[in-house]
Amino acid sequence: MWHIQKARVGMKCLSYLILFLLTWTNCFTEAFSKGKSWNEMFELCDFRVILGHVQPSKQPGYYGDAGMTNDMTKFVQKIRNIFWVEDNSLISKFPPYFTNFTNLLGRLKITNGVLLPWYKLLLDTHMCMMPSYQRRFFLIFIYREFKNGRNEDKWNAALQNAGLPSNWLTKLKKVIVFKDVIQKAIKDGRSYAPTSDDAFRLARDVAEHGAEHRFAQGGAERYRDDSGIELMIPCYMEDFIPEIVAEVLKEGVNITNEYGLKSYYLILANACGMLEYHVAVADAVYLSGQDQQVLLNLLHETF
């Protein structure tokens, strides 16, 4: 997992990278949904940034399934270079769930020459492209959908098929906030067992009720609001949550209302002044026709 200090990078800087990855990914998924690709014949200079969004300046063509696969091999290599962090003290060199995302990119679900709609949604809205607090809300929303009783068999199958480390509960009992939530559950007679169902429940409970344990009885602050508590979920449960999401989407469970990402990113962009920033970037550095290193340098300097 990224170090807590990395997790505290300014919201404006983080939002640039999130929007960059989200919209660049969408360039490919949109093309794949129409059976088109670049067949790995693209560079960063073949895309431009306009109003914070990555858009293609070189149009894709029809190269079959192999062309889409070739695109993703190259795309994964490029985004790994951008998001990789050189720091031996880190548990992971990449952001939360990023490796899960790149693994999905390498296993495209294509039928009759086009990317399947549920797989496009999965890639376009992947949890690695959500900031920490957005993942908290998303956890709460999808858990409510799970508990509403609809599609129960599909949800239960998703929980059982999602990978989960065997020692997740033992380790989280020692982590601040998690141990408070666990102790309260024991006191209330609803303790957690080392099962997939209860792992999902604990993740939701921490997302929804973790802030209740932020202050001691005397009013002293026990941990900062941006201390990275949510990061402990991918740290100790690994890819459990995004694998659940992938499974329920595959089974046709409608969780589009739980995303709400389109309006979220518009709000985030305006709140961070991102639009003004990228207007200036688009004027100063029109990426089409320039060396691919221009965008790499821009991202690393911003971050």
Q: In a few lines, what is going on in this structure?
A:
The chain is mainly alpha-helical. The protein has 16 helices and four strands. Helix 6 crosses helix 10 and helix 7 crosses helix 12.
Task: Give the low-pLDDT segments.
Answer: 1-12, 261-303
The share of residues in helices is 55-70%
Largest sheet: 2 strands, antiparallel
Q: What is the global morphology?
A: globular
| Whole-number total of structural domains | 2
User: Over all CA atoms, what is the radius of gyration?
Assistant: 20 Å
Number-wise, the strands total 4
Order of helices and strands: HHEEHHEEHHHHHHHHHHHH
Q: Span between N and C termini?
A: 17 Å
The count of helical stretches stands at 16
Beta-strand content = under 5%
Strand line-up of the largest beta sheet: 1-2
Signal peptide: 1-29
Keywords: Signal
Descriptive overview:
With 303 residues, the protein is mainly alpha-helical. The chain folds into 2 domains: 1-115 and 273-303, no CATH class; 130-272. 56% of the residues lie in helices and 4% in strands. It has 16 helices and 4 strands. It has a two-stranded antiparallel ribbon with strand order 1-2. Strand 1 (47-50) and strand 2 form a beta hairpin. Helix 6 (132-147) packs across helix 10 and helix 7 packs across helix 12 (240-250). The two termini are 17 Å apart. The model is unreliable at 1-12 and 261-303 (pLDDT under 50).
